[in-house]
């Protein structure tokens, strides 16, 4: 691929991804390859089994997109793989698979600066992201945004992408996450065509990489991203990264990458305080046309859920759905009724040792078994539940919780939290077990138990 065709194709890929979203792009359009640009004829090659589908469904979009990048007089032609070099398995082929874990960063109308609620917990990150979007590579480069899951990091990435594209449509914006970057690099290595992978990520004006911590402990991916980072930074291109931890806490990452991540602005986001949570709910309610029956309904939801924005919006959806299905008004009383079970009022009084002891007693495990490497169902589920409760009932960070559970990685704790949350949603017996332990670990429960024991002794 010559340099001119390479540059045009980089613009086309970015526009296509923005137009259709990442899942559709990965399945149907990422495998496309430009064969040649001769005069006003632009030939694109696609796998034979998708040729007709791509031509029928995306032909008009391809024509529009390529016309903008290569000129209005260009005629696009879609053909099947034309030679062995571009056939699957050949040096020019790059396999691309759908990535269900990677939600689209681009194209979500809710993820804009207008829809982002500013509070004390995120003011610096918001201001830095806005400055970067308005002046790419002139404000903070790199910009590194970190914080626990669900506090708005991906929202800011999407907002940057949307503002850059609206103000500077000629700029190439590439938005992805650490897992997708790793998977694409592995595919490129397997197909022996890393040059196209490098062109995809190095011939851009703005690179937005969500969850960069995913590349930890992946030596070859770290090496590739190190060179990608340097190439973009040396060329004066904007880099924005997000992670669940600041660079200094990415202990498994190469020192040279940690140093580069720290070389720009590191902006941390904390879980939102009550006033911000109420403002978030008001904005979401206004966006979705939700009208609470009294002014305290949203406050009741905000008081129940203080972990992150994602959980907060999920609680709003549950309360609204319950009100709609039962044909009741959306009031504070209704919110308390729905959320007292789903989101018991949180208390941060318990220690990790208290939680581990309660889990061991409930499931009849020894402390050594709970902290062991044993992955049998009898031990793995209680361990995941213990990590879930540790995150919900303490102020400990994910790495700190992992250290107290046998020196496990923060990603293991996050997986345990997600897995337990999913099981609670789908399995009523699991939810009942969690609620029982949750209630047992509340200070008021302990006081009641002590009073009952005292009464029995009398």
Textual characterization of the structure:
α6 (178-191) packs antiparallel against α7 and α12 crosses α13. The chain is built from 20 helices and eight strands. With 458 residues, it is an alpha/beta fold. The protein has helices at residues 3-20, 22-29, 51-70, 123-134, 153-167, 178-191, 194-202, 219-234, 255-261, 274-288, 297-304, 309-326, 332-342, 352-363, 367-371, 377-393, 398-404, 410-426, 428-440, 443-457; strands spanning 33-38, 41-46, 75-80, 143-146, 173-177, 206-210, 238-243, 265-268. The longest helix is centred in the N-terminal third of the chain and has 20 residues, at 51-70. The strands form two sheets. It has a five-stranded parallel beta sheet, sandwiched between helices. The protein has a three-stranded mixed beta sheet with strand order 1-2-3, with helices on one face. A hairpin with a 2-residue loop joins β1 and β2 (41-46).
Key words describing this protein structure:
458 residues, alpha/beta, five-stranded parallel β-sheet, three-stranded mixed β-sheet, 8 strands, 56% helix
């Amino acid at each position: 691929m010559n340099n001119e065709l390479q540059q045009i194709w980089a613009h086309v890929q970015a526009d296509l991804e923005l137009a259709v979203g990442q899942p559709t792009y990965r399945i149907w359009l990422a495998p496309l390859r430009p064969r040649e640009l001769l005069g006003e004829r632009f030939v694109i090659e696609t796998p034979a089994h998708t040729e007709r589908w791509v031509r029928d469904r995306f032909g008009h979009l391809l024509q529009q997109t390529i016309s903008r990048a290569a000129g209005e007089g260009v005629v696009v032609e879609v053909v099947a793989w034309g030679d062995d070099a571009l056939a699957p398995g050949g040096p020019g082929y790059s396999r691309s698979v759908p990535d269900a874990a990677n939600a689209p960063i681009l194209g979500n109308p809710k993820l804009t600066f207008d829809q982002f609620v500013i509070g004390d917990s995120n003011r610096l990150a918001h201001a830095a992201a806005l400055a970067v979007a308005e002046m790419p590579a002139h404000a903070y480069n790199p910009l590194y945004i970190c914080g626990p899951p669900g506090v708005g990091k991906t929202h800011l990435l999407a907002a940057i992408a949307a503002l850059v594209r609206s103000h500077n449509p000629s700029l190439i914006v590439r938005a992805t996450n650490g897992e997708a970057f790793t998977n694409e690099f592995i595919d490129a290595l397997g197909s022996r065509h890393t040059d196209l992978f490098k062109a995809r990520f190095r011939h851009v004006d703005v690179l937005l990489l969500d969850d960069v911590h995913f590349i930890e402990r992946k030596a070859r991916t770290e090496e590739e991203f190190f060179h990608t980072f340097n190439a973009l930074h040396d060329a004066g291109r904007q880099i924005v990264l997000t992670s669940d931890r600041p660079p200094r806490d990415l202990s498994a990452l190469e020192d040279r990458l940690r140093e580069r991540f720290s070389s720009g602005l590191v902006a941390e986001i904390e879980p939102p305080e009550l006033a911000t949570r109420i403002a978030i709910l008001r904005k979401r309610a206004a966006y979705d046309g939700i009208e609470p029956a009294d002014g305290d309904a949203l406050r009741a939801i905000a008081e129940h859920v203080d972990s992150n924005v994602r959980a907060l919006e999920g609680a709003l959806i549950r309360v609204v759905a319950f009100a709609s299905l039962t044909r009741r008004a959306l009031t504070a009383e209704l919110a308390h009724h729905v959320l007292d079970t789903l989101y018991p009022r949180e208390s941060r009084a318990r220690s990790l040792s208290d939680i581990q002891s309660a889990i061991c007693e409930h499931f009849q495990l020894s402390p050594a078994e709970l902290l062991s490497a044993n992955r049998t169902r009898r031990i793995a589920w209680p361990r995941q539940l213990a990590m879930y409760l540790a995150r919900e009932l303490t102020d400990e960070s994910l790495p700190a919780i992992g250290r107290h559970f046998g020196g496990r990685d923060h990603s293991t704790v996050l997986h345990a939290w997600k897995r337990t949350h999913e099981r609670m949603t789908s399995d009523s017996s699991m939810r009942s077990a969690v609620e029982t332990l949750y209630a047992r670990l509340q200070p008021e429960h302990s006081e009641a138990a002590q009073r009952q024991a005292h009464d029995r002794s009398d």
